[in-house]
Design goal:
Shape: rod-shaped
Largest sheet: 4 strands, antiparallel
Helix content: 25-40%
Structural class: alpha+beta
Order of helices and strands: HEEEE
Strand order of the largest sheet: 1-2-3-4
Number of strands: 4
Number of helices: 1
Number of domains: 1
Strand content: 15-25%
Distance between the termini: 97 Å
Length: 165
């Protein structure tokens, strides 16, 4: 015969064991949920940066098309999208021109001190037929902060576009 006191002790041990198992499963579920939320947030921020880069590249093309290049050329465009502070996206675009030098006479034709071509016009060989056109290279940089990064580092998305005018 089983005594009543040993039945109660067995029930207590079983209840404690079930509570420990449930706590372990709950902590694992919470861990996976946290990682999923972080991955989803990172994916959202990256896709937002890609869409902003595409939109601002098209905006730069419109600016250059409708700008009178007889006085000067558009070389850089900067903007901020979203909330001010750490939650927004900083947009910076550098525009370089390639093509007929006579059409780009008022653009800055210098190479910067680092040796990189920055916002310069390059003359093309006249035998190719390409010399009658102007193209532009648009480097779009979207900088944003990762919401979950404790060290508060910047993430930069870069898009380079070659557009014939």
């Amino acid at each position: 015969m089983i005594k009543v006191k040993s039945k109660r002790a067995f029930s207590m041990i079983t209840a404690i064991f079930v509570i420990i198992i449930m706590a372990t499963v709950t902590s694992l579920v919470m861990n996976v949920t946290g990682k999923t939320v972080k991955a989803t947030t990172l994916q959202y921020q990256k896709e937002q940066a890609q869409l902003l880069a595409r939109s601002y590249t098209e905006l730069a093309i419109l600016y250059v098309i409708y700008k009178d290049r007889s006085s000067d050329c558009i070389e850089t465009i900067s903007d901020h999208f979203g909330a001010s502070g750490n939650n927004g996206y900083d947009i910076r675009m550098n525009i370089s021109y390639i093509g007929n030098g006579t059409l780009l006479a008022n653009c800055n034709n210098n190479i910067d001190s680092s040796g990189a071509i920055g916002n310069s016009a390059t003359w093309i060989d006249t035998t190719t037929g390409f010399d009658k056109t102007i193209s532009m290279v648009i480097d779009t940089y979207i900088t944003y902060k990762d919401f979950d990064d404790p060290s508060d580092r910047n993430i930069t998305f870069h898009r380079r576009t070659l557009q014939k005018l």
